[in-house]
Amino acid sequence: MAGNWKMYKTPAETKAFFETLLPLVAQSTHADMAICPPFVDIAAAVEAAAGSRVAVGGQNCEYRKEGAYTGEISAPMLKAAGCSCVIIGHSERRQYYGETDATVLLKTKAALESGLQAIVCVGELLADREAGKTNDVLTTQFDGGIAGLTPEEFAKIVIAYEPVWAIGTGKVATPEIAEDAHKVIRGLVAGKFGADAADKVRILYGGSVKPNNVKGLMEQPDIDGALVGGAALEAVSFSQLVNF
Ligand code: PEP
Q: pTM of the predicted model, to two decimals?
């Protein structure tokens, strides 16, 4: 269960979030948990989460290690700051910051090389879905952004299916719609990396997951967890997702 805070919260708010969250998930050993705060909150999150099962992750990384890239943060920097994972290719990065399947692949490789687990996002726009192109889009994103990994690299990623029309809109995909897409993605994995890899890879659903809809989604056989924006901003609601 992973939380993507996007551009919300200060270090002080981060500390307060973890103070409330940790007792609520102290017994929650059934799920891996991660919170991905803005870069400036990572130090506060790592300190507050120390000794708990809640991992801290970045929301993005530059694929080059260092250099004259003003405003960027590299994967080794995230690792050194105490992160254990990083979200790659979120639709907001693709939409507003020009990320492509090619940069997703570069960033994923950079993250893995630095010892970070990559949470690699794919998902279709509303127009794609309405045009019946969901599977084509997922296939293109998979082929361009994930299929270029080696089997060893692939074994270390988590995939997040995030239909863009469901992110931050309150329009959650029905469990059946989400399950269908997850099945397609698992099939793509099987085709490229084999049945065992398809069986093992964790595929998270993301898009308006809330405490009142998480159970139906998690009951689907191909949905292994969730990547959550809005409902991960509040500690009690994130704990309810973890403990659904
Ligand atoms: C996200 O940011 O990845 C996301 C799924 O947001 P929300 O849960 O708010 O739709």
A: 0.97
